[in-house]
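stage 2 :: seqdesign
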């Protein structure tokens, strides 16, 4: 069960919550060991094309501002975000917009604690992978 491995849970870092509200620790690209992605907010040339070119990540409304999340934007929730949100609600049982509204209301710290509980694998306690709908750590 990988006792020497570092936990993939988020220990309170904004670096692992993308501006769209995605929790990077639940992402397959983050959890896999091969071609591991360090998270949306961390620059890395090895990242997948789709992540580097993400239209939300590269949104001009984030340039030269102190905005950290989409809910801080006057266009929230914009069509880009709504499309992403719909896809994730339908396919992966999670909502970016809900996440962002939680962060706006209760703060990032509480959101992360809640996320770590919400997505914990019932067998090993690690965060499951939303894209695989299961736990990669213990294969349950
Ligand atoms: Zn597990």
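stage 2 :: out
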């Amino acid at each position: 069960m990988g006792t020497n491995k570092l936990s993939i849970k988020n220990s309170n870092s904004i670096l692992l919550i993308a501006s769209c509200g995605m929790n990077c620790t639940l992402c397959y690209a983050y959890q896999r060991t091969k071609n591991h992605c360090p998270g949306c907010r961390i620059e890395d040339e090895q990242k997948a094309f789709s992540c580097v070119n993400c239209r939300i990540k590269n949104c001009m409304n984030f340039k030269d501002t102190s905005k950290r999340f989409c809910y801080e934007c006057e266009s929230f929730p914009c069509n880009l975000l709504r499309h992403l949100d719909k896809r994730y609600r339908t396919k992966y049982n999670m909502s970016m917009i809900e996440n962002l509204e939680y962060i706006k209301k209760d703060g990032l710290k509480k959101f992360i604690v809640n996320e770590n509980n919400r997505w914990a694998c019932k067998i090993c306690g690690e965060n499951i992978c939303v894209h695989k709908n299961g736990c990669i750590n213990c294969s349950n």
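stage 3 :: structure notes
- The mean pLDDT is 90.
- Helices lie at 28-31, 49-52, 79-92, 96-106, 108-118.
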